[in-house]
Amino acid sequence: MNGAGSAGTGVFPASGCGADMKHSSQKTVGQQLMLASRLYRARMAELLTEIGIFPGQEVVLQALAETEGATMGELSRALRVRPPTVSKTVTRLAAQGLVERHSREDDARIVLVSLTKDGRAKLERIAELIGRMEEEIDDILDDKDAKRLRKLLRRLSKGMAKHSQHASELENEPDIPGDDEEG
Q1: Which of 31, 96, 106, 151 is deepest in the core (most CB within 10 A)?
Q2: Average model confidence (pLDDT) for the chain?
Q3: What is the average per-residue pLDDT within 20-34?
Q4: Helix axes 57-65, 83-95, angle to 10 degrees
């Protein structure tokens, strides 16, 4: 192959943006954030499989723990996912006996989803796994670094939300106590 792209790999010139792209992109905050997020999700997925659930199912159980029952629409809005996604997840959780569907007493047309006894027990296991993940993070970061990271991630999330169609997602998020100080 002749031309500007023929040096090096044949795709990019030996010097210029292509040659340095791998190294420079690994240094960006966004790339590191994406990598850490993927690794966190992958590790959490490993732990969740130990208790027989898949990623995404735990957040539905956690959302239901805060209510006596919720409609599919309420769950969809609370989790910021499309209704079919919630419906599939609830169907799978119901098949495992972790949630149940029932009609609302004052209006039988409205179907509520609530946790079963087994679902509440699974929530305790999920809390233990989250604790394990926090212990693993504690092994990597000292208290000061962890506090600083939480603060920086919160500031980053709020700032990015201002420039996004998802700006309302953080409106009701509670501030983390003690994270307003440098420590």
Answers
A1: 151
A2: 82
A3: 75
A4: 90
- How many CB atoms within 10 Å of residue 86? 24
29-86 pLDDT tens trace: 999 999 999 999 999 999 999 999 999 999 999 999 989 899 999 999 999 999 999 9
Res 169 pLDDT > 50: yes
Q: Taking the domains of the chain in order of start, what are their residue ranges?
A: 35-162
Q: Are 183 and 177 in contact (CB under 8 A)?
A: no
